[in-house]
Design goal:
Elements lengths: L9 H5 L7 E4 L8 E7 H20 L3 E7 L4 H15 L1 E7 L4 E5 L16 H4 L1 E2 L2 H4 L5 E6 L6 E6 L12 E5 L5 H18 L9 E5 L8 H5 L1 H8 L10 E5 L7 H9 L5 E5 L1 E3 L2 E3 L9 H21 L4 H11 L14 H12 L2 E3 L3 H4 L5 E5 L12 H7 L6 E5 L14 H4 L4 H5 L7 E5 L21 H9 L4 H13 L5 H11 L3 H11 L3 H11 L5 H14 L5 H11 L3 H11 L4 H15 L4 H27 L5 H5 L2 H6 L6 H9 L5 H11 L8 H12 L7 H15 L4
Parallel strand pairs: 2-3, 2-4, 4-9, 5-8, 9-18, 10-11, 10-12, 12-16, 16-17
Antiparallel strand pairs: 1-3, 5-6, 7-8, 13-14, 14-15, 17-18
Helix pairs in contact: 2-6, 10-11, 17-18, 18-20, 19-20, 19-21, 21-22, 22-24, 23-24, 23-25, 25-26, 29-30, 29-31, 30-32, 31-32
Amino acid sequence: MRKKLLLSLVALVLCVSNVWSQNILGPKSRVASSFAIMIDDKSFEACEDAVMAYKNMLESEGLATYLLVADWESPEHVKFFLQKYYNEQAMEGAVFIGNIPIPMIRKAQHMTSAFKMDERFDMRETSVPSDRFYDDFDLKFNFIKRDSVETNFFYYNLAGESPQRINCDIYTGRIKPTKEGQEGYDQINKYLKKVVAERQQPNKLDKVVSYTGHGSFSNSLEAWKEESITLREQMPAAFTKADDAKFYMFYMYPSMKKVMTQELQRPDVDVMFFHEHGLPHRMYLTGNPDAMDEDQNFEAGKLYLRNMMRREKRMGKDPMAYQKTMMKKYNLIDSTWFAGAFDPKVIAQDSLDDLQQGIILEDIPEIKPNARFVIFDACYNGDFREPSCVASEFIFADGKTIACFANSVNVLQDKSSSDLMGLLSCGFRLGQWTKYINILESHIIGDPTYKFASVYRLPQIKINLKDVEYWMAVMTHNLPADLKGLALYKLFDLNYEKMPELLMDTYKNSESYMLRLQCLHLAAHYPAIYADLLKDALDDPYEFIRRKAVYFMGKVGRNDFIPYIVDLYMDDYLSERVEFNAISSGGMLNVGILKEAFKERIEKDKIYNGEEFYKGIEKKLNQGESLRDFIWGALIDKNASPRQRMAYITSIKNNPYNQMIHDLVIIMTDKNEPEQMRIGVTEALGWYVYSERKAEIVNACKSVLESGEELSPEFKDELCKTVNRLETYMR
């Protein structure tokens, strides 16, 4: 190791504790922005030359780079130096190479897009591995413990006094090998050499491939078709030739695995999207291929029954009992339909067929993916707490893949996966883009400093400038839509006093789908304009905006939205996701009024077979209302055990029914209720961020805090957390 290059004993000067010692190598020159390479000492010893080449490459691009080498003992150890260099050296980001502690975050599920697991169960599975612990210096956490087995895991609760919205100060990426010992060091060495080699030539973002797997967006063509419009806004250079932008969907061929393998192997692809379901070890590309004739239908039915028999056995149930049940239910099938369920040869063939429906870890080294940046809009493909995951295998495989953007836990399908992504076409680094994708589970796996050459002639964008006039100038000039979207977020963070008017004016006058979408996101924080913007959004040409607008209408809970929801449903019911959200929102409003409004509209339009059409709508509304009333009744039933009642709290997180607020507040404020029940309900009330009645909840929480009642620290923390969450949406 070239110790003469390293400055030692820095921790003795900077830290209270002498145990935090590491070696630091500063940049060769001072520039406006800096970056940190943080690596464990063993990995550096084995990979020194490759790490130094990576550092030199970054400095050649004008990014002052610090190298910090240590036996990193805790996330606080890492975060201390990140914050120090951010404050003193204008550090914009960092990369974690090798064995860097993994924060496992709890009591912060509202910062995820979809993760709602009951935290009373296994800590490992109900925590979110997240580097937002490092990225946002304002967030506050309470340490719980270090894992005694997986000692690189450190568990934390998000504190109630903390901000309850992520607002990243820096960006980070992880380069964590999937193999142990020397094999793992070899992965790091080879990967960093690949990064340095790829960065030698400027590369414009002009080749894009998008794949939508089975089950994404309810398999809706209406939802799928508009991605070509939004990506054209964000990546215009990829829409000049026939093969520059490709859009695939799961049903295009009997098996899409071969097709997508060929696309991944193309040497010219810059960005590749995978909208699919996933696990750490698998990408789910397709379901069973659609049958084309009677024989294929017959085989598909037998395959399904064989798989169900095996499932019954795995769950400790009697597979023969299942067979008898199915034969009785469908009296046209006999035992031949189940034949071979446990025959090793049949199991092997079924497994081979199953492998054609997705990409697994073992496939990736053989594929040798070349797409420089891969986005996994899927659950768990980026779960870096596991020894290996899909995203990590992509960067370590031979090929040209530099980085992936992937999720460490499950993720919401109904989210925008390309917000502000046009920044990449403007020459921004990957990390500079992801700073504004503020959810707990999404991470860069690989080099976060990678950037494409700008496809525009642009003035230098002063991304870190905190000046209202500057960002208003960005809004008024002829610049790409996502630069204006970035300006909106900057103005939001600067508490620009005329932000509501700016959002409404921008929404009404912009032709950009993605800029209008950013207005929809930010308007949720301003109740004075939100309802009006949602009403306008129901007529937006962008299906995703319509879909989300009607979804949020239910969360707001205003019955004056009902005529708008009915009109949207009747005019757009062939858009599956819009139709689904319109009906789902109904349960959060007055269902009786909603039914009458549907009847009037059907009669007015003289719908063919209108009575049957209405019955279909009524059935769905009744199901939603019944579910709501069942959950409501279970929560307020004091004769049930607290454990039974609390089992339904997760349902409120996903469906914050405004009708329940009064009863939930009663439970929260009732001294005779079990404290865990009060805490659980308080947490659930924190999900009412869009509700028109959130001020009522905030006042109730504050009244408990100020009542003089002796409250446990946990209860106080949850009350503070709910107040802070809701007030974020009360600008």
